[in-house]
Amino acid sequence: MAHKRTTRQVLPSRREQTREAAAIRIPRTRQGAVWEQLYAWRTGILWVVLLVGLSSLGLAMTRSSLFLLRQVEVTGCQPPVAEDIERLVRQQSTGSLLTVSLPTLRQNLESLPRVRQARIVRILPDTLRVVIEERKPFVLAQMAERSGLVWLDEEGVVITVYDPDTDGEPPTLAVGFASDRDAAGRRENRERLQLYRNLTWALDAAEPRLSERIESIDLSRLQDVRVQLRNSRIVVGLGREDFRERLLHACEIVDALQRRDTSILERMRFSDPRIFEKAPYLKTVNMVSARQVNLEFDERLPAPPARATAGGNKSTPPPKAPPQSTPRPTGSAARR
Hints:
The structure is a single chain. The protein contains nine helices and 13 strands. It is an alpha/beta fold. The protein has a ten-stranded mixed beta sheet with strand order 6-5-4-7-8-9-10-11-12-13, with helices on one face. The chain has a three-stranded mixed beta sheet with strand order 1-3-2, with helices on one face. The chain is elongated. Keywords: Cell cycle, Cell division, Cell inner membrane, Cell membrane, Membrane, Transmembrane, Transmembrane helix. It comes from Chloracidobacterium sp. N. InterPro entries: Cell_div_FtsQ/DivIB_C, FtsQ, POTRA, POTRA_FtsQ_type. This is FtsQ-type POTRA domain-containing protein. Residues 67-135 form the POTRA domain.
């Protein structure tokens, strides 16, 4: 009986199969690793490409003549101030409009005396729009450490020097302002401006407008505002309150003395009739209150012009000053 020959195929072991599979996969894995990493970083790569593109575009735009400054629009101020602003903007905005620093330009504009606040808008491709809040002259003042008169705004900032040729007849002058070189002086000046504001408002709150009677206002003492009457050397002390009532009463007394109105003696309870002889030497009217007054006379003041006599061309000498002391009336006083 014949025997059948059989052949048996020897299968590789598990370890050999693993090695063969690994040898097949390794080349494929190494080829795809780079792409897999690039795919994982795709967002960052896109941003890099975008930034490079934008930088190149921006560089090209800044070098383009299309964005050079050609027009400057200035609004909110007077023509002379607008001309100065436009000149400064053009001087500091050379090159491309895209590279102009608006905060720096605004700071430089607000350093000008007449500019309180500036707002700048960039309008592409070639225009800058400047909106100005201009400082307005509020009071003509005499200030320490300054040789001439200056215009101040409502915040006490010096705007410009007074020029009689261009500014015309000076309005009511305010004196006694401290130097604006230090913080303490600026703080005091703001208080003086508030007093000035209160005073002018009170004097013109009704008719008659008493501000028309004033030549100058002395604000050097914050607790005692003093005014000099127009076309006169008489100074009226008004204190710090009731400005209108006090000045109205003071002007009534001054006018009555100049008219030699004898009724003033009874109404004001002046007991010395020689008050009319002393009237040309009246120096100060101190209003203690709205109805109480102290009069000060100065015999050293120039005497009034002599009046011609009725019988010829001779002139009578001015009256001599009365004695240094006079009786003090009730509710008022007269003193040298």
